[in-house]
Amino acid sequence: MVLTDCDGVLCPRTLTMCEGHDIKSFNALDGIGKYKLDALGIEYGIISGRASQTVLIRQQTELAVRCIHIGARDKVQTYESILTEYGFRPEEICYIGDDEPDTELLARVGFAVTPADTTTEVRSYADYVTIAKGGEGVLREVADLIQQVHET
Q: What fold characterizes domain 2-146?
């Protein structure tokens, strides 16, 4: 299973607000990355600390993501519930995170990934640092990497 944070991974770290509503930019490459994971039979989900209807619209409605946890105050507890619900072991999880709230998860999974523009501290938790910056196709890069491993 591949799990990701949202802000700083699927979207740039910029938070744009318009009259109390957030506006997010998603990279279309990541949508194709999600479909590549689907084709490989790999579950995909999101654990985001921010509660955003924009994330739900993009991920649930447009990309048919089933595992979406937004407003997750305790990402570790959410992660543990996902393991139980889906029956995965920690070593079967890839987590993509970009900031300090993600470090506990990065330390617990089988394959920890951070975007190129993360901090040095967070990067130290990573097994792989993407070439792409957050919001510039990070999920697609990871999906391509997983696909290459499956083909060998």
A: Rossmann fold (3.40.50)
